[in-house]
Amino acid sequence: MKNAWLYELRRADTNFTSYLFGTMHLVCEDRFTWPERLQEALKNCGVLYLETDLQNETEISWDFLSSFSNLRETLTNTQWQKLWELNETTLHYPKEELAHLHPFFILTQLQNQMFDCKVISPEEGLRAMAFQYGLEVRGLESLEAHLGTIGQIEKHEHMNLLQDLLENYDELKKLFTEMTDCYYNGDVDKMSDFFNDNSKLVLSKAAEEVFLIRRNKSWLPEIKKAAIKSPAFFAVGAAHLIGEHGLFLLLEKEGFTIRSI
Hints:
8 strands; 52% helix; YbaP-like; elongated; 16% strand; TraB/PrgY/GumN_fam; alpha/beta; TraB/GumN family protein
């Protein structure tokens, strides 16, 4: 990953450069390296934008993650047994608590456990560098708005995603490894092909609409506004950049030139 996933963002009506970096929320520490020019790019900016603003939230409602119907009664015996096996080896929740967790909460934790390595968070690394260099750190969306996107997906869709993971866990773990390999290798085209070929297994149509397409559209005005005001550094999940609804194409339609560095 010498210069992979790091891009210059320019427009004809500005005389400065902003930057766009594709991240993953977690990566293997022994396989991830920062792009060579990333620190230089950060130092040239006055603000770092991450996906979600985690600094300025006070009272956030987590109600949608609680009081879920009994998973033990909703899952098949085989699915529940698989969930319990995974719980015993990775999550370690008491059986009664596990049965009432929201499927999204379980799904996220199980996906994070698919790494066979020590993991680190590039976003936290960027945040630390930003503070070191004196950059302001902002979010393209509030935590409340982010949690709201989760609530936009119907409960049965969340359940379907969890059931698919439990029924296809080994296959999905293999696909997850392929996806992370694309990222480590900086292969944008292969990453795009991966999502096109495996979209139904990776994300349902409803989840793709909420988590990727709608969020990209909602972020676009803020990115445009910030990128033509002063040098800014934007870091979002690599999946948000690619595809027909990705930020690459959306920003190009807004007159930006995007160049890998």
